[in-house]
Amino acid sequence: MSEKRLLVVDDEPEFCELVRKVATDLGYEVLVATNGRTFQEAYLTLQPTMIVMDMVMPEMDGNELVLWLVEQHYAADLIIITGYNLDYAKDARLLAEFKGLRSVVTLTKPIRIARLREALVS
Question: Which residues contact 91 (CB under 8 A, 6 or more apart)?
Fold first, then answer.
């Protein structure tokens, strides 16, 4: 298993593919999920060292996934992304930090490739 493992969850497959390509170039092993349930299954398989998560998705939103990650005792980096109001991501970051997740970064779509790389490297 790779030292750098990224799990991406976003209901937009094109965005997932963009993140996968950038992360692979940075040496990550990457799994992609397009909904919350698949994300949960992939999380248990991959044991990610970083997660990129969209906030607004059908069935299960980013806040629900943040709370689930807390239950799993997730202790690695989390990047929360939204294409809607940035307040969605900020609120999720506050929830994550309040619940004990250590490193949370928020980004907005459309995202610059350089900014995505920077977030994945830090």
Answer: 63
What tens-digit pLDDT sequence spans the chain (122 residues)?
789 999 999 999 999 999 999 999 999 999 999 999 999 999 999 999 999 999 888 888 888 999 999 999 998 999 999 887 767 677 777 777 777 877 888 898 999 999 999 999 97
Cβ atoms 96, 65 nearer than 8 A:
no
Locate tokens 């799994």: which residue? 31
Number of domains in the chain: 1
In Å, the largest CA–CA distance within the chain is 36
Q: What's the CA angle centered on 50, arms 79 and 62, to 5 degrees?
A: 45
- Contact yes or no for 105/55 (Cβ under 8 A): no
Kindly report the CATH number assigned to the domain that includes residue 29.
3.40.50.2300
- Structural domain range at position 117: 5-121
Q: Output phi, psi for 47, to 5 deg.
A: 50, 65
List Cα–Cα distances, 75 to 29, 87, 103, 104, 111, in angstroms.
18, 23, 8, 11, 25
